[in-house]
Structures are given as structure tokens and as C-alpha cells.
Amino acid sequence: MTDRFARALWLEPPNACALHRQPLPERAPGQLLVRSRYSAVSRGTETLVFSGAVPESEYERMRAPFQAGSLPGPVKHGYANVGVVEEGPEDWLGREVFCLYPHQTRYVVDVDAVVALPADVPAARAVLAANMETAVNALWDAGIGVGDRVSVIGAGVIGALIAGLAAGIPGTAIELVDIDPDKGALAQALGVAFRRPDAATGDRDVVVHASASSAGLDTAIALAGFEATVLEMSWYGAMPVTVGLGGAFHSQRLTLRSSQVGAVSPSRRSRRDHGSRLALAVSLLADARFDALFEAEDAAFDDLPSVMHRLASPADNSLCQRIRYD
After folding, report:
1. Tens digit of each residue's pLDDT (9 = 90 or more) over 187-219
2. What count of other Cβ atoms lies within 10 Å of the Cβ of residue 3?
3. Going by C-beta distance under 8 Å and a sequence separation of 6 or more, which residues neighbour residue 89?
4. Is the Cβ–Cβ distance between 253 and 229 less than 8 Å?
5. What is the SS3 assignment for 323?
6. pLDDT, tens digit, for every residue of 225-276?
């Protein structure tokens, strides 16, 4: 008989967290009991929650889909979980699924809360699905087209996924721009050019900013061509941001636009919903190039508290930290 308890990571802002044991709810007909195999930590949202850097105005708007608790108090947060179905309708038993669920060893959800992994998408890579969904929305928001010259500022997980996707559009010229020269290997794995900010090409059709820094946003504006779009992907939490809107910003007639995954891009909203967008994101992870986004070593679930402390440090330069449950 399956143990009716689970262990989960609870964030206790600011800068504390712990693993707690909790009972599992009774599974209703049509629901699934999922045993986690992998999850991943969001370097953006989750570390801001952990650090207590979420503005009070955003406490409710940025709730994770299966969050327990409420800010500013302790919360069970996270949204990148891949597991295997242990109980449920017969046609779901043993299937690997992605769910926007926090870091927890087992959980009970409705069938429509999961996406079954296609045969060509490995479970270990599928933890990128939530980030990939953000990248898909970004490409829809940016309107990147055939032959566009695109710069992506910030070679973190989101920036790398956007660059990798955009590189698949025929005729595009993609540059991944970062201050860290070691990110050149990541760009090479994705099949895109790498540039330091002082060597990046200007006059771009679209510039995507994902470095979460004022300097990166200024670089994005400087690289944009006449009447080009600068798409802001960074979420700064409570951190103030200074952006230079003098210089050529107005004479170049630039558009500075935000993009956020909470709503489907207006260009697709009448024909796509959150479920179909997430299913698309999962399917795109059949591409083995995206394995380059993971840290060399997975972390064990029991080590999650120390992992959160490490990832929240400004000195840490990890990409996607995958958590192993098996």
C-alpha cells in the first residue's frame, strides 16, 4: 500500500526553508497520484520568494498554480515537476507526466492538471517545460519572423531557451549576449552566435532582454534598430530599476514591451489556452540541444534547503538546477 504521506519543500521568507512531512489527500475518481522523479528550481521567481523580495502588490498575482500558504508567510512554491502516475484511471498508470507542482515527493491532482510526456521527451529534460512555456510566449509577444536579426541579452535559462527557439526560424540571425565569456559554450550547443556586450551587433530587428539588470536593459536598447521592439522578460521583484530613455530611444522610435507567462500572448489568445500552450512547450523539449541548460550534477531532494541558499546567492552562476527524487 502506498504511503499516504509526502515530503515537501516550504519556503520561509526571508532566506529560510525546510522540508516538511504532510498527509496526502484522498484521491477522488479521475484524479492521479503522482510520484515525483525530478523537479527544477526557478532561479527567478523562486529565489525572489525565498529571499522575501516579492513586492506586496504581487503576492496574489504571482501565486504558483498549486501553491500552499500565502506570502509573506511560509509557502510551498514551485512549478516544474515531472513524475510517474502511481494511482488513477488505468490508461494513466505508469505514464510520465509534467505538472506545475511544487517540490514534493508525491501529490494528488486532477487529470487535466498534467501533460503526458511524448515518447521522445525524456523525463529529466521535461522539467524545463514551465520555462519553455515562458519562452514560447516570448516569441509570440516579440513577433519574431523569417530573416529577423535578433539579440537575446542574458544567457540564463529563459534567454537560452528563447535564443534556441528563435534559431529554428528560417533565415534568422541570433546572437546570445552575456557578460560571462563561459556562456559561449552554451551558445555553441544551441547553434547561435555568442557576443560580449561590447562586441554585440547593432541595428537589430528584435532585442529580448532577460538579464534582470539595468545594464542589460540599457544594452538591449542600444542594440535595437529603428522602430524595433525591445521585449523585457526580466522580473525584478522589489528591486528598483534604472533605464536610460535618453539618447536615441525616442529618435529611434523604439517599443519597450513587457512579456509575462501569466497570460497567453494577445496574438494567440483567441486560439490558444494555457493547457495547449503548455502541451506545446513540453513537445518542444524533444530537442536534445536543451540538455546544455542543466548543471552537470543533479541535486538530491534531501539537499533542497542548501540548494536554495546557494541559488539565492548573487555569486552563484548556475543555470537550471535539476532535483532528483529517485
Report:
1. 999 999 999 999 999 999 999 999 999 999 999
2. 8
3. 30, 32, 111
4. no
5. strand
6. 999 999 999 988 778 888 889 888 999 999 999 998 888 999 999 999 999 9
